[in-house]
Amino acid sequence: MPQTEVTNTEKKYSLSVLIHQDGLSFYTHNSTGIQETFSKEFKYSSNPIEILAAIEDVMASQEFLKQEFEDVKLIYHHNVFAAVPSALFEEEYAADYLKYNTKLLQTDTISIDDPVPAFGAQMVYVAYSNVNNYFFETYGDHSYFHYSTRSLTTLSGMPSGIYLEIMQSHFYFTVMDKDHLVAHNIFPFEQVEDILYYTLFALEQNKLDPETIPLTIIQNNKDQKLFNHLYTYVRNVSFIEDYKDYLNKVICA
Q1: Which of 41, 45, 50, 116 is nearest to 83 (CA)?
Q2: What is the distance in angstroms between the CA of the first residue and the CA of the last residue of the chain?
Q3: Does residue 12 carry a pLDDT above 70?
Q4: Residue 5 lies in a domain
Q5: Is residue 197 located within the same domain as residue 252?
Q6: CA 206 to chain CA centroid, nearest Å
Q7: Distances, alpha carbon 37 to alpha carbons 76, 158, 238, in Å
Q8: Closest among 164, 152, 176 to 229, alpha carbons compared
Q9: Domain match, 186 and 115 both
Q10: What order do you get walking across the sheet with 143-146 strand by strand?
Q11: What is the mean pLDDT of residues 10-17?
């Protein structure tokens, strides 16, 4: 009887790398979710040259990264981006969407993600060409995105309301009304009071009623102090039910 070769697809992993100015996070994953992680924090905000040097150090020291991956994706998390309605987007003016928010350098690579289907919005942002080139030389073809594209795609399946995704030194503020993206931005913070300030400011600017609109905190470790501060002004506050599932969808999908 002829024998059939069986391939164990569970042993084939994909790699996702979250790249931001505060540090790096490496995730290997397969169909069951995230399998192995490694994170490196920076003591201060780093530029693309310093970020690449840190990536090279991690790649040299972590054995689990020295393998072939089924798929490799880079996810840029920084504030040099703009969410542009697809109906108004014109590719030849991509740099114009960013130049009012930040000073662009001649070496900056302007990147454009595919639209988030549910909202008809697409991200224009700066990708680091030196980092992209390094991963191409190391692993070959790979994809890259802005974190906002990944998170909004995941949030689009959730109920309408405000979502605060708390990162190390920044947080994303998102407001959804059914299939309409009302607001999406990123703010820096040092104390929970900073998060409260920006949230109340955004509520006022978007004419949202804090007495009725639901607010969900997306955070790995639930910060009760943050919850209490927000609940003083916003009446319907909760933490996301399953942060691990949310992260799996953002990182692995």
Answers
A1: 116
A2: 40
A3: yes
A4: no
A5: yes
A6: 23
A7: 17, 26, 27
A8: 164
A9: no
A10: 33-41, 23-30, 14-20, 71-77, 143-146
A11: 83
Same domain (yes/no): 34, 117 = yes
pLDDT digits (tens, 9 = 90+) for 72-106: 999 999 999 999 999 899 999 998 898 877 777 66
Distance CA 100, CA 96 (A): 7
Domain containing residue 169: CATH number: 3.30.420.260
Q: Which residues pair with 121 in a beta bridge?
A: 85, 116
Q: Could you tell me the pTM of the whole model?
A: 0.91
Residues 125 and 40 in one domain: yes
Please say whether the beta carbons of 164 and 172 come within 8 A: yes
Q: What is the mean pLDDT of residues 126-143?
A: 95
Ranges 10-14, 21-25, 71-75, 112-116: which has the least confidence:
10-14
How far is residue 73's CA from residue 176's CA, in Å, rounded to a whole number? 27
Q: 28 has which bridge partners?
A: 15, 36
Residue recorded with tokens 């920076």 = 42
